[in-house]
Amino acid sequence: MTSDTSAAGWQGWDAYAPFYDWENRRTIGRRDVRFWTDLARRADGAVLELGCGTGRLSVPVARAARRFVGIDRSAPMLRRLRVRIRRARLDGKTSILRGDIRALPFRRRWRCRLVMAPYGMLQSLLSDEDLARMLESVAGVLPRGGRFGIDLVPELPRWQEYHRRVGLRGPMSGGRRVTLIESVRQVREHGLTVFDQEFVEWRGRRRTVHRFSLAFRTVSVPQVAARLEQAGFRIDAVLGDYAGAEWSPDAEVWVIIARRV
């Protein structure tokens, strides 16, 4: 595990890849899928998903979009996504790239109509500098009028600290059984919430332990809105859920829709 002050937001995700879908089926489900697929359908052009991971959203969004591009830094996550894309027969309209969202690896004139940063993905950028670089890079692939959707996790700074709590347990594919033992730390001087994960995997009598940490940064809607405006965006909407409810600081999610000007 890395120290909190030197951690990079992408660290831990390679180790998380085998368990990501298993955990998220039990926590997130599909409550945000319709929101993102509707945006993609209305984009009338290519859609880029930042931090696409194993494709929880990528596959349904790719079905709705005219063209879909997903980018992530984690090779193990992307291997799982590519299998999903092939099984869904979406290869012809989908491109999957390994890269850094702070410096998007596209040709100078490449453009898309919608960029998605779902489910707190942006909060894996652990400094103002990283956030500014990412926004500048996103602005470079959107034409005037192109949209940028951001989904923030508001409860990070309120997350209760605890140590080695059994969070989830249950079966996985291949006859495996898995238990998640989780600790949560607040590193308030750096605005970070750190999840120390321990997945205990059983294959018959064989026990394997997988340990890693995931760090997320607290950012506010005003902070992100100001950064967006500095990067050449105009805020179209700030929502408090995936059905279009009015935003408030106590809303369960914070969604920002911005437009390139």
Structure characterization notes:
This protein is α/β, with parallel strands linked by helices and 261 residues long. It has 2 domains: 16-154 and 218-260, Rossmann fold; 157-216. It is 26% helix and 33% strand. The chain is built from 6 helices and 11 strands. The strands form 2 sheets. A 7-stranded mixed β-sheet has the order 3-2-1-4-5-11-10, sandwiched between helices. Strands 6-7-8-9 form a 4-stranded antiparallel β-sheet, with helices on one face. β4 (114-117), α5 and β5 (147-152) form a beta-alpha-beta unit. It is globular, with a radius of gyration of 18 Å. Residues 1-6 have low confidence and may be disordered.
Instruction: Report the uncertain regions.
Output: 1-6
Query: What is the domain total for the residues?
Result: 2
- Adjacency order of strands in the biggest sheet: 3-2-1-4-5-11-10
Largest β sheet strand count, sense and barrel closure: 7 strands, mixed
**CATH homology group of the largest domain:** Vaccinia Virus protein VP39
Q: Compute the number of helices.
A: 6
What helical percentage do the residues reach? 25-40%
SS elements, strand count: 11
Average predicted confidence as pLDDT: 93
Distance between the termini: 41 Å
Look up the CATH topology of the largest domain.
Rossmann fold
Rg: 18 Å
Question: What key phrases describe this protein's structure?
Answer:
11 strands, Rossmann fold, 6 helices, seven-stranded mixed sheet, four-stranded antiparallel sheet, 261 residues, globular, alpha/beta
Kindly summarize this structure in a few lines.
With 261 residues, the protein is an alpha/beta fold. 26% of the residues lie in helices and 33% in strands.
